[in-house]
Amino acid sequence: DLSGKTAVITGSNSGIGLGIARELAMAGADVVLNSFTDRDEDHALAEEIANVAGVKARYIKADMSKGAECRKLIEEAGACDILVNNAGIQHVAPIDEFPEEKWDAIIAINLSSAFHTTAAALPLMRKAGWGRVVNIASAHGLTASPYKSAYIAAKHGIVGLTKTTALETAEEPITANAICPGYVLTPLVEAQIPDQMKAHDMDRDTVVREVMLARQPSKEFATVEQMGGTCAFLCTDAAAQITGTTISVDGGWTAL
Ligand code: NAD
Q: Which of 112, 134, 141, 241 is the most exposed, having the fewest neighbouring CB atoms within 10 Å of its CB?
């Protein structure tokens, strides 16, 4: 039961972040949603979660590519017992053609943001006497693929940051872990299916199985609900001695 705890989830107006926010709210936590936009529908998501789960929910705009805004997000949240660093973007290109500004943006959003939010949140966790840092890495935090240099460097980096955070909090009731998802069916991934079907001249099932899930032995997408459930588990007492490690939710990807 997470009632009385406040969870801040970066990049949570869609996909995995939103799934995690919903699951933590259903477990009783007050939640702070975030992205870089400030639209009515962003705030409406928070209102919907508050109504469905019966918790407090807020949406705070902050751009995770900027260190000062990362720190301000935690400050504005006021409390941060559970920090979920989830905001992330992708760009696919060979290293010698990789746009410099894409490299910088991916390192900032997918890696440095977690440094800034963690730095701002640890003092609040220490004051509260309890804390959970959950970083959303990737199977690409443990293995590589071509053409995703910035993403893979950032995801390997966040696994390292997770380990360091765990060691610096090891004697306190605070844990830090990384979830490493394989392919998760989010709106972002769903949107790629029609293009892949056209490019490979395959039907939906075949393109999902043979192209998109080529490296996921289960041949099934993981779900945002499963990411939320894994995150909620890391917040239980059963997980109190799980720290500084990675949990793969990847249908066997990293066993290959
Ligand atoms: P998504 O695009 O649905 O979600 C990304 C979230 O980050 C969105 O809410 C977006 O608004 C937010 N975001 C982007 N730039 C931001 C910025 N500058 N400031 C604040 N928020 C920003 O994608 P997703 O699939 O849900 O991805 C979420 C996380 O999970 C990412 O870190 C991603 O790398 C990781 N992941 C996804 C998969 C997958 O298959 N979908 C697999 C492994 C890891």
A: 241
Range(s) of the chain covered by CATH 3.40.50.720 = 6-184+223-255
Which tens digit of pLDDT belongs to each residue from 69-97?
Answer: 999 999 999 999 999 999 999 999 999 99
Is any atom of ligand 1 closer than 6 Å to the C-beta of 184?
Answer: yes
Q: What is the ipTM of this complex?
A: 0.99
Class of the CATH domain delimited by 6-184+223-255: alpha beta
Which amino acid residue places its CA nearest to atom 23 of ligand 1? 15
Which residues 6+ apart lie within 8 Å of 224 measured at CB? 15, 16, 18, 19, 20, 184, 185, 186
Cβ contact 224:13 at 8 Å? no
Ligand 1: centre distance to CA 10 (Å): 9
* Best mutation site among 14, 45, 225 for ligand 1 pocket (most ligand atoms within 8 Å of CB): 14
Per-residue pLDDT tens over the stretch 23-35: 999 999 999 999 9
